[in-house]
Amino acid sequence: MRRLLLTAFLILATVLAWTAAGSADTGISTAAVPTATCGPGDHPETGLQGRVPAADYTSGRYLQGYTCNTEAVAHEGSSGGFKALRYTDSQGNTCAFYDSTSLVPPTSTLTNLLGQKGIGVVVLDMNDPAHPKRTATLTSVAMLSPHESLLVNQPRGLLIGVLGTFLTAPGALDVYDVKTDCRHPKLLSTSLAGILGHESGFAPDGRTLYVSSTIFTLVAVNLDDPRHPKTTTIQTNVQYHGMRVSDDGNTLYAAHIGQPGPDLISGGGLRILDVSQVQARVPNPKISILSTMTWAGSSIPQVPEPFTRDGHQYLFEVDEFTDLFSLSGLTDLRHAPVGAARIINVDDPRQPYLVSNVRLQVHEPANHAGEQWNDPGGNNALGGYAAHYCSVDTRDNPKLAACSMILSGLRVFDISDVAHPREVAYFNMPTSKGSAAFSQPAWDRANDSIWYTDTGTGFWNVRLTHGVQDLMH
């Protein structure tokens, strides 16, 4: 009997040890971060942090927008998608690139039913940030619907997009040269090297592109010669979303959607991969798993952005929407986990751990299931009050992070104390239908500004004010 109890104890201890290593349920607070203190002339929110209540639509208050330590510098277009990118070319021209198609190609019946606007990838001349000038609209195969794959590599001046939809699509890969003249991108190649498309990640040196199809494939594409992309590695039966790569190109941080099972797909979080053989151009390179991490309240992991703070390695990770991939989430969207953000320590890529959560009051379970469910767009399964994309202003000791949080608009957080993030600014211009901020924000540090797009209102150039801009420098 004693031996049986000892065996049971050892088994239990092993299970608990494994759980501790793989889970982020460490008692880190999931409460909302402190609210921003707004300055004179701002138009603060009227209720919960991040909420645009139905009463504001009825009264017309929403038409003023909601600003806190921000001001609009410029606005362009009438639709937006998932990325807002900034690039300065070899001649000193600064450009913005943003996808204007949010869900599916604009020729489809589904698009018409959804009332979606926009076609292709928009190119803006931003030499005068207050007066963006559209110089091109890219409508090559992949750029018609790059979904969440649109990226620009700074060192090499390559703009890429992979054909995708909210599920996946044949992974046509378009590669453009923007280093010569970003205002007029030059198409270098169109290929099927992406295999299946949805999201992507660039090695910092621009030599390797990683393409994911969410629930099917992970592909590494060699871009040593961008006119002739080569598929070097294909992994199948993997569930990866957005991806980012370490500065040395050897480690891939992948948003892991989860594993198929009785509850559809569950157990989402972070997966860290060793891609050193791909980076070193080893023939037939192998990609191996270093660790898998989960956390309480995961919805759909979107992307982990790497950064350093005082010599330590972190990820600013964000989840999107509510939990739409599990049976339990789909059957009770009102009480399903809501996408938000978090900071993860990855000093040891084999043992990542949660440092803090970055959430708004509208993300808290009781509020999500409460009155705000009846706000315009508040009960939208593909939107609502949830996060979608975040970015940091620099990888090297950033003090600010910005997130597009759908109905809550653009939110800006002070992350200089990684254990205690706080909100310091926001900018939200809702429409009568709720509108939705989905895009990864871009940073114009020279002008104290952030660029992002909204599905219903297009591209925005937003300046930080009242001292918040000082955190950018």
TrEMBL record:
<dbReference type="InterPro" id="IPR015943">
    <property type="entry name" value="WD40/YVTN_repeat-like_dom_sf"/>
</dbReference>
<keyword id="KW-0732">Signal</keyword>
<protein>
    <recommendedName>
        <fullName>LVIVD repeat-containing protein</fullName>
    </recommendedName>
</protein>
<feature type="signal peptide">
    <location>
        <begin position="1"/>
        <end position="19"/>
    </location>
</feature>
<dbReference type="InterPro" id="IPR011044">
    <property type="entry name" value="Quino_amine_DH_bsu"/>
</dbReference>
